[in-house]
Design brief:
The complex is a heterodimer of chains A (253) and B (192). By secondary structure, chain A is an alpha+beta fold. Chain A is built from 5 helices and 8 strands; from the N terminus they run αααααββββββββ. Chain A is 41% helix and 24% strand. In chain A, a hairpin with a 2-residue loop joins β4 and β5. Classes of the chains: A alpha+beta (253), B mainly alpha (192).
Chain lengths: 253, 192
């Protein structure tokens, strides 16, 4: 069967690690015919899919995990062979060993100190990067000459939540700043809706930080005019139309 | 963005059964792998078990790592994702997503790992922004497939979208991701 867009769709799903079910046999047959396009797409697609995994925030493992892993290793490299068995050298070796052990302890102390300093610096760098990213995205909307603002009030299960959307019809984007949002289970996300022609349109999903705050740049709006905004709780990744409770909503003038 | 020489050297030392090299590999990448495993499996011990399996796999199978086909981190991420998804599927929850509470008592918080090199950190930021720039509906399909291991039918049900649209979004989304990452690839070698 000649190569078609349908094969490319199946290759994309395969590269993402999604089981193909009934379509698997079809792609299998096509690849067996030696389609070079599909092989190239699959290799590149797998690499691109790994970027999803590489994009996830790191989590510091508990200290005992390292020991557990190193303790479970099988055979290791044998120790280097012993030095020449002459007594005089053995004494020298013992002295050398003592010096090395002493030096090793000092190096370890230095390493601990460096590690704690670099942890501190990494934390500061992260904070600075976050602040810069937020400032850049704010500038894109806030510096446009048609910037508008709307306050959002808490609603339903989160009546204490507060928010504000700044948007530009020219930029067709908005920035949501919200606070006092409740933590969500990891399979849920907040989804922003922009009301256009009286209907809610998906404007992207976001997470609140540990203190319930979020600054989020919306996805581009399909239309320029925005009549209202709302935020709902949806399954992670978002839904095409709202299904969950409304937690923030605007009051258009 | 090419794999650092020390990664290749570490792998060679691991292949020669040098346990300290595995410790160094762990220090470098365990937080990344645990982050991914927890994203898929949620908090709790299972994600740590996956990380343990992956490093034991790296110890046993260092010889099967082919530097020409991708960076060490990619190799480890693929191993982590496939093991975590296997466990997720083994939970037998059918099409239901598992409940994955973020704030499990006693679980360490997400951090910027101290051992990560600046190139590694930069790569993480590039990937994050490439994924973040995808249109929301394409990103949702990619994430549901990659992080939840859903079939195309399950994704269609979950997003209330026709099956044909799911396939198109998977193709377009992955294509865009590939295009965004293309400038960071070097000849013959994948980015990490």
């Amino acid at each position: 069967m000649p190569h078609s867009e349908r094969h490319e769709e199946l290759v994309a799903l395969l590269a993402l690690g999604a089981p193909l079910g009934a379509d698997a046999a079809e792609l299998e047959r096509h690849r067996a015919e030696g389609c070079a396009v599909c092989e190239a797409l699959l290799a590149e697609g797998r690499e691109a899919a790994t970027a999803l995994g590489a994009s996830v925030a790191s989590t510091l493992p508990p200290p005992e995990l390292r020991e557990r892993i190193l303790g479970a290793l099988g055979p290791r490299r044998a120790s280097p062979p012993p030095a020449a068995p002459w007594r005089v050298f053995a004494a020298a070796a013992a002295l050398l060993l003592a010096a090395v052990v002493f030096d090793d302890a000092r190096l370890r102390r230095d390493r601990e100190e460096l590690r704690s300093r670099s942890a501190d610096l990494a934390g500061r760098l992260h904070d600075a990067e976050t602040a810069l990213a937020e400032r850049t995205l704010r500038a894109r909307v806030l510096e446009s000459d048609d910037m508008q603002m709307m306050r959002l009030g808490g609603s339903g299960p989160q009546s204490g939540a507060r928010g504000m959307v700044c948007w530009s019809a020219k930029a067709r984007r908005g920035i949501l700043m919200a606070g006092r949002l409740a933590p969500l289970p990891s399979d849920r996300q907040y989804e922003l809706w922009v009301f256009q022609n009286g209907k809610p349109v998906n404007a992207g999903v976001f997470d609140a930080d540990a203190s319930g705050r979020a600054v989020f740049e919306s996805a581009p709006f399909p239309e320029a005019e925005a009549q209202n905004f709302a935020v709902t709780v949806e399954p992670r990744g978002g839904m095409p139309s709202p299904t969950g409770p409304v937690v923030l909503v605007g009051a258009p003038a | 963005m090419i794999p650092s020489e020390s990664d290749a050297v570490l792998m060679a030392r691991i292949e020669a059964r040098d346990a300290r090299a595995l410790g160094e590999l762990y220090d470098r990448y365990a937080p990344r792998l645990l982050g991914l495993a927890r994203r898929i499996l949620g908090g709790g011990g299972e994600a740590e078990e996956v990380v343990q399996e992956v490093f034991l796999f790296a110890w046993r199978s260092a010889a099967s790592y082919d530097g020409g086909r991708g960076a060490v981190l990619s190799w480890l991420l693929i191993a982590t994702r496939s093991r975590a998804i296997d466990r997720l599927r083994a939970r037998g929850a059918g099409s239901r997503p598992p409940l994955r509470p973020l704030e499990d008592a006693g679980d360490p918080p997400a951090v910027d790992d101290v051992e990560a090199s600046s190139a590694d950190r930069e790569w993480q930021a590039i990937c994050r922004s490439a994924v973040g720039e995808l249109p929301a509906e394409q990103r949702a399909v990619l994430e549901l497939a990659y992080f939840e291991g859903l079939t195309q039918q399950e994704i269609a049900e979950r997003t209330a979208t026709p099956l044909g649209t799911v396939k198109t979004r998977a193709r377009l989304g992955l294509m865009k991701l590939r295009e965004r990452l293309r400038p960071y690839r070097r000849s013959g070698t994948d980015a990490p």
